[in-house]
Amino acid sequence: MNPRDRARAWFRRLPVVTRLVLAVAVTMSLVLAGAAGLVYWRVRTALDQQLDDDLTTYQRSLDRAVRAGEQLPPGPSGSLQQVLDAQGRVLHSSAALRHQLLLTPAELRRVVHGATVRRDIGSLLPITSGTLRLQARPVTADGHGRIVVAAVRRGHRDEALRELLAQLAFASALTLIAASYAGYRTARGALRPVERYRSGATTLADGNKHLRLDVPADRHDEITRLGHTLNHMLDRLDASAERERRFVADASHELRTPLTLMRAEIDVALHRPRSAQELTGTLRSVDTEVQRLIDLSNALLDLEELGSTGHITRSPVPLSDLVQDAIAAHLHTAEQTGRTLTAEAAGTSADVDARWLRPALGNLVDNALRHGHGAVHVMATVEDGRLRLCVRDEGPGFPPGFLPRAFDRFARAEASRTGEGSGLGLAFVHAVATAHGGTAHAENDGHGVIVALDLPC
Predict the structure, then answer these.
(1) Other Cβ atoms within 10 Å of 179 Cβ, number
(2) Domain limits at 388?
(3) Considering the domain boundaries, does residue 391 fall inside one?
(4) What are the Cα distances from residue 391, in Å, to 106, 146, 368, 426, 446?
(5) Closest by Cα among 179, 178, 210, 216 to 196
(6) Whether residue 333 sits in one domain with residue 424
(7) CATH code at 370?
(8) Which site from 110, 316, 339, 426 is most exposed, i.e. has the minimal number of CB atoms within 10 Å?
């Protein structure tokens, strides 16, 4: 692994707050360095411009004096001057220089050939004494070539720049510390709800089944949206666990009776030798219970599928086809029992899931034929974007106390409407209506029972 990958791996292993503070510190360091560099450059440019102006003015006064053969004028405080001939011999020099040459041989040659030379002597850091800025250029006096060197002290300029650097470093350090602290406090404050959510999730993992995260109601930022999402997930998990517990409880409760009956029939058949006719009767009884178990299992699985996904696939379905398909399997039963089964459907289509709605309507027809009396009438209408499916029979109706729980699982009315069945038919109808975003309703109208589905379409 190369150093860059190792650095990235190390950075990713750090806590989130530490990574955020480091990111803020690095970013602020770059910003502060850029701002300090800009300020330093602007100030140094201004100071250099002033120093160059003073040096140029001093150089011009020396040039005029050399051309006129006059005494060289004094310059700014601490300034130096030197006049050389074309061979580099010192003709005049400030007392502080004596015969020390300010120009190097290379610079001397350049000036002899007509160039102007400017350079600094000494450095800003570390601090040195005698820092100068000099300028040399050729001058003709009395037909002879001369080299005039002017130099001014850089002490005030360098001191000002060193003070500026110290102040910028101090201000940048304070700003970086303040920004890092603010970033730390902000990151801690922003991630505090996440830590609270994590603690809540730990409590949930320890067995608290009804935990909900405390999400502020007066905010709508990313953290609160995360909290609402987690609470929604917890609701779904609770609902899923409740459906699983209910499914197991319902299945164990309803499967116990047919399994007990089958075991009793088989035990009796095995207790003593039985005739072929008796064994046939036993097998038929067992077959009836097996079919009941199959129907019960299918009903439970259908309810679980609807409850667990809540997903339906809508598509336009002609109402007449939907109703005819739902009652087709029951026409023979109605004919055998001398009952009338009629249907009335609007000549339009509805946007529903026929895969679930067709068996739900069939369940209502089956209940009406099984438990009701007289004619059974199915009606399908669409009004204001809603589909209404009604199944009416002419039976005695539901007991008044049964109506509020008619759509509960395994709910059964009095003996007049019980008999065969698992008590899951109306529960399945209610689940289909809920999955469509609608409702299911049952009522006694004085002439029988009306069970209706009201669905958006």
Answers:
(1) 18
(2) 312-456
(3) yes
(4) 114, 124, 8, 12, 15
(5) 216
(6) yes
(7) 3.30.565.10
(8) 316
pTM, to two decimals: 0.53
| Same domain as 299, residue 345 | no
* Neighbour-count burial for 10-43, b at 16+ CB within 10 Å, e otherwise: eeeeeeebeebbeebbeebeeebeeebeeeeeeb
The secondary structure of 390-416 as a DSSP string is EEEE-S----GGGGGGTTSTT----GG
Residue 192 structure tokens: 């505090």
Q: What amino acid is encoded at 209 in this protein?
A: K
Helices 155-205, 222-271: crossing angle, 10 deg rounding: 20
Per-residue pLDDT of the chain (457 residues; tens, 9 = 90+): 677 878 778 878 888 888 889 999 999 999 999 999 999 999 999 999 999 999 999 999 999 999 988 888 988 888 999 999 988 899 999 988 877 888 999 999 999 999 999 999 999 988 888 899 999 999 998 888 999 999 999 999 999 999 999 999 999 999 999 999 999 998 888 888 887 777 777 776 566 666 777 777 777 777 788 888 888 887 877 777 776 777 677 667 666 767 777 777 777 777 777 777 877 877 887 787 777 677 667 766 776 667 655 567 889 999 999 999 889 888 988 888 889 999 999 889 999 988 889 888 988 998 888 888 889 999 999 998 899 999 999 888 888 777 777 887 766 665 433 345 566 778 888 888 988 889 999 998 877 899 999 999 8
The Cα–Cα gap between 439 and 265 comes to 42
Is 265 within the bounds of a domain? yes
Distance CA 274, CA 176 (A): 98
3-state helix, strand, coil in the chain (%, to 5): 55, 15, 25
What number of residues does the chain have?
457
Where do we find the tokens 């350049």? Answer: 110
Which tokens hold the place of 91? Answer: 């003709």
Does residue 385 sit in helix, strand or coil?
coil
CATH, residue 241: 1.10.287
Verify that 265 and 374 share a domain, yes or no.
no
8 A C-beta contact, residue 224 and residue 215: yes
CB 139 within 8 A of CB 67: yes
Given the structure tokens 């026409």, which residue do they identify? 331
Q: How many structural domains compose the chain?
A: 2
The enclosing H or E element of 377 equals strand 376-383
